[in-house]
Amino acid sequence: MGIQSNPNxxxxxxxxxxxxxxxxxxxxxxxxxxxxxxxxxxxxLKAKEQGVIxxxxxxxxxxxxxxxxxxxxxxxxxxxxxxxxxxxxxxxLYMQSFASMLPVIILDPRAGENILDVxxxxxSKTSQIASLTQNQGSLDAVELDFKxxxxxxxxxxxxxxxxxxxxxxxxxxxLHFLENNPQKTYDKILLDAPCxxxxxxxxxxxxxxQHITPNFVSKLARLQSQxxxxxxxxxxxxxxxxxxxxxxxxxxxHLLISDFLAxxxxxxxxxxxxxxxxxxxxxxxVPQRVIDQTLQVMPNKFxxxxxxxxxxxxxx
Length: 316
Ligand SMILES: C[S@@+](CC[C@H](N)C(=O)[O-])C[C@H]1O[C@@H](n2cnc3c(N)ncnc32)[C@H](O)[C@@H]1O
Description:
This protein is α/β, with parallel strands linked by helices. It has twelve helices and twelve strands.
């Protein structure tokens, strides 16, 4: 299906072009709406990096090192082969896009910290946090949807996330969870918000974009904003909150962060910078620091776009 025969996609791209500092970037962007090499993290809760890579090589799966911790990529055509290996089935590795690894790298979880993952299923980032902290400290992971919560639990068990002494999951609306547990406060919070997924568009797969309507996006933006306000309340002074989406829409990203900062004097934006990850530059009616200090990844053949904002709390 081409763009012109898909009004949702064509409307979406037109409105995106209107917000870009250099509207020519839209044609560059379209070229990146493709299948990328398959990527994964070695699960350091269960395996040693080199052992996994050597074993894959013996099975004729050549994995190339990438620049994030424990991260690799393989030819997209080898995805099914990888999924048949014992390394995949036993959770010695976890398939995750590089873009999806980014928010946790920015959050920089450390052993001993109290951490909250507000919207957690299927657990890519919950397990990434557990792997980086080696199950030390405490991690609460909340997920609204029953089936997705089951999948979260299944993944966390497979990946050796310690569900007795480290990570507690809750199948609840995070808004209720936060409201009903005001005594729970956190050093670090990840809000990887439910979003329109417009950064995951694949041009020849209309199911990747036919849901993206203005009404859908504005409803999501309302929920994202409520989740951000409620989560930020539970952040300890000097704590860090990372807000992320796999959306390209400023309504879910820059505009939302800008509104939040205008109403939350104790929030301070921190610079998000990732060496060798280029940003997309928007031209929006928001304070320039929101454009300069948050990151909307410019997608390329390795990484899809993702939006990441890093907030700290300067006082209670
Ligand atoms: C972008 S996904 C999270 C992906 C996850 N962080 C990961 O890396 O695997 C957003 C999740 O939020 C959940 N969700 C939506 N509304 C929610 C709410 N009010 N409370 C808790 N979870 C919610 C969705 O069911 C979905 O699983």
